[in-house]
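Renewal narrative, Specific Aim 1. Our central claim is that a sequence can be written position by position from structural information alone. The example that follows is taken directly from our test logs and has not been curated for this report. It begins with the structure tokens describing the chain, in the order in which they were read.
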């Protein structure tokens, strides 16, 4: 019912989405680790705040700067790892939208529900 070129494109897009699933699981784990790091940083900063009056201004500034810089570096590392996956997901989403529009234009007399069923059969 639906031309093979469209179903093959749909299969390819779906396969690429599935391939991204495993790296996303890994990065979810990293984000959970980052959450733990941020929570630990909050606890450290609360302790730091309690001992602030016992430190010199320069010492306190350096310690605070070092802690915040370390947290920022860890966040940046995770962001850089996630950025290519996010770009790939956006690209696939756009491809999916374009493909769907092409299919609807090619088969205007078939309901969206029937088109979806046909595509799902081929996947």
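The sequence written for that structure reads:
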């Amino acid at each position: 019912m639906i031309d093979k070129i469209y179903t093959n494109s749909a299969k390819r897009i779906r396969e690429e989405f599935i391939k991204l699933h495993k790296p996303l699981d890994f990065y979810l784990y990293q984000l959970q680790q980052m959450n733990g790091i941020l929570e630990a940083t909050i606890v450290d900063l609360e302790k730091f705040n309690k001992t602030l009056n016992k430190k010199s201004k320069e010492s306190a500034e350096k310690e605070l700067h070092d802690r915040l810089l370390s947290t920022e570096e860890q966040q940046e590392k995770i962001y850089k790892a996630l950025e290519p996956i996010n770009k790939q997901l956006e690209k696939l989403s756009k491809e999916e939208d374009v493909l769907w529009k092409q299919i609807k234009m090619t088969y205007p007399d078939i309901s969206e529900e029937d088109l979806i069923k046909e595509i799902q059969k081929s996947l």
